[in-house]
Amino acid sequence: MTSKKLGIALVALVAVLLLVAPAMAGDYGKTVIKGNTTFIGESGLNINSVFLGTENTLSWYSSGSKPGTDAPSSVITVSDPTNFYVSPDVFTGKTGAWFNGTSTEAAFYVQKASLSVSLFSMNSSKEITNKKAITNDDIAIRVNSNLDALFARGIRTATGIGSGIDFYVETPDGATLTKLFDKSGGSSNLSAVKPNNTLYWLPAGTQTGVWQLLQKDYKAGTYKIYAECNVNGMKDNLGTVTGVTKSEIGTLTIDKDTVTITADKETVVRNNDFTVTVEGAPKTDYVIWLSGTDSYTNMSKNSGYPPIFVPNQDSVTPLLEAQIELMAYKTGANVSDDVPYATDCVTNEWAVKAKTGSDGKITVGLMTDGGTKDAVYTIRTAKVVSPTKLSDQLYDTVKVKVEKGAVTITASGDGSYYLGEEVTLSGTNTDTNDVYLFITGPNLPKDGGILTSPQDYVNFSRTDGYTHETVKTDDTWEFKWDTSSGMTLDAGTYTIYVTSSMYDKSGLSNTKYDTVSVVIKKPFVTATTSASTVAKGDKLYVRGTAEGNPTQGVAIWILGKNYWNGITNNNQKVTETVNDDGSFEYELGSGDTANLAAGQYFVVVQHPMYNGVFDVDASATGSNSVEVTQQAKGTTSATSQFIIWGTGKLQGSDAAEALINSINSPDIDDTYYKLTFLVEEPWIRINSIGDHYVGDQFTISGTTNLAVGDDLIVEVTSSSFQPTQKTQSGEFSGASSTVQVAEGTTYNEWSMDVDASTFKPDEYIVKAEAIEADSTATTTFNVLKGTTPTTAPTTAPTTGPTTAPSVAPTEQPTPKPTASPGFGALIALIGLGAVAALVLRKD
């Protein structure tokens, strides 16, 4: 708005809403009668006819108010009703009915103008605003507005810019057009359009092709279309307000009538999908097909077939065999001559009809699988001219290469396995949806044996003639190979093959494959006991390793005179679970060994081997006895071998020998490991201590048949310990400690360090007592007054016996030197008794 116009607007505001309309504004519908609609921004209106008598005020009531009864929300006085301005300063937010004074009948209505433009294709009858059109299309233009109420007020000056809604078209070069060539061969004027409804088609209210996109008249590019309204000075007064005095700018991209087809991938690994995009005329039918594939006549998963169109796609229609037989794409050739013949003679998977969207594009998916032949394919599209003809000019092609994928295989672990273990085979397959596995090796079928039954050759004609696994959606696969289930493999090196299709070793050139080598080893079991000799009341552990993943664990047989460990297990053999690393541990508790007679015991650790079953077992006979049974390979029942418990049982070594002979049978695949251990009465020995002097630091040690880790209480007390008078100091010297048994060379050993710096010269008693077993040993030594001699004593300490006694030996005290002080062991015991009596008396 110019400064002159701004000055006029300000003067009008001061003059109570009077404004002289700008001279350039169109004079249209100036006279407003009762019940008409006016629009904010109009000026120069004559509203005389809406007043009653000399009344010159207008009233507006907010929503919910009752005109004529309630007080108005706003009242204005009109000075010159022949030059009325619908000022935005007054009427914004106060749209709707305005009343003359206190009248209850509306004088006129005030609205805010709305204005927009839409473009439609006459070929598709679809809106294409801001989209693409093809040359030779006819475009209809529609104005969407509420200004039809303005043009219903009547005409004064009906011509010229500003006397209606004016439309403009800007070319790609920036020129502005006010007329367009239409389908009649003439031109349509886009100025002073006066719609008579809210959705008005240019130029005369009906949907005709007002704009014909002939290539000679309109070159390709993007055109801008918009409308403006300056009727009664609206645009001059309000300025350019989008959606009010000027519509939003719509665009139309004009393109030549061409077609292109592109693929999202140049190369596709089969078993994956890909897409092609056709770009041509909007809302137009095109046929897309796999050109040059008519030679694919004997199609199977092994011989291969072309990619197929994904079914059930939006705006894509599969074509029947009968349809493509009539659909010519060039002189003398139909689509049916260019694709494979439908296997069911009806449905065709290699030709479809697709309709482009309003933007002229459509994307169509194709799929491949493991049976798709690896080759270069030509996908062709052509515009549909009629139900029996495709354009021989408007077509395009694109090439896509389909190639085989890759197959991989790995084996869990280090590639070396004991027969009976579960081996996880895994890998990837980007070629097909399935993998097939077979094995080769010493004395197996040369073209491959079934993985789960290696001696049987692979036969893809039988459902049980091969090993198969489905590939997951992430292209990975996994198969758990149980080598304990029906395996007849010997120890050795084998090769496992994985293929992407049904081929054995003789057909590897026709498929993708990979291999992995595995070493099969014979399972075994080893074991040790925690000690070769166990004292009664001590624990004994049988520990070992059982390779081959025995799911039933291992059986632990312990046999001795009148003893079998199964009698405490409900007359059943004892089994122990094997850990993931192959280790196991069986505990013979202290309560068990405490009840064992001294003597030799035999341990047999049994491994179930390949079939995972203990073929040698224990079974109650029902007559208070238990027998050992044997079920040989190929038999359905077990046979008795010997009685292990009850009347007629074999004893100790005889039972162990009979058990081993049963396991050693050639018809039994179980294996074993044998051990022995001795049970003795517990004993403790104290090595010779010798004389020591006050202030010496020395070690008291000994031997024992107690288990490593057992605790001993070792006490050193003065033999002269006795009650004292209250006036005496009551000094006492000695030491006490709990020590653990440690592993020794011949026997287990124990020791305690002694610091004699606080000892008094005296005879001392040493007592070593077991906590977990019933065994005690004692001895004495002297502590002398003076200092340690500079030369070592000539008497060497006594070592333990070379063999363990059957009962704990009784230690004799070492004779006391004549110069040693003290009263002897008897006096010490008397002193202890006196102290006890004194304590009791005090209590």
From TrEMBL:
GO terms for cellular component: plasma membrane; S-layer. Residues 34-236 form the DUF3821 domain. Residues 821-842 form the PGF-CTERM archaeal protein-sorting signal domain. Keywords: Membrane, Signal, Transmembrane, Transmembrane helix. InterPro entries: DUF3821, PGF_CTERM. The chain crosses the membrane at residues 822-840. Residues 787-810 have a biased composition (Low complexity). It holds the Pfam family DUF3821. It comes from the Archaea. Residues 784-819 are annotated as: Disordered. This is Uncharacterized protein. It comes from Methanoplanus limicola DSM 2279.
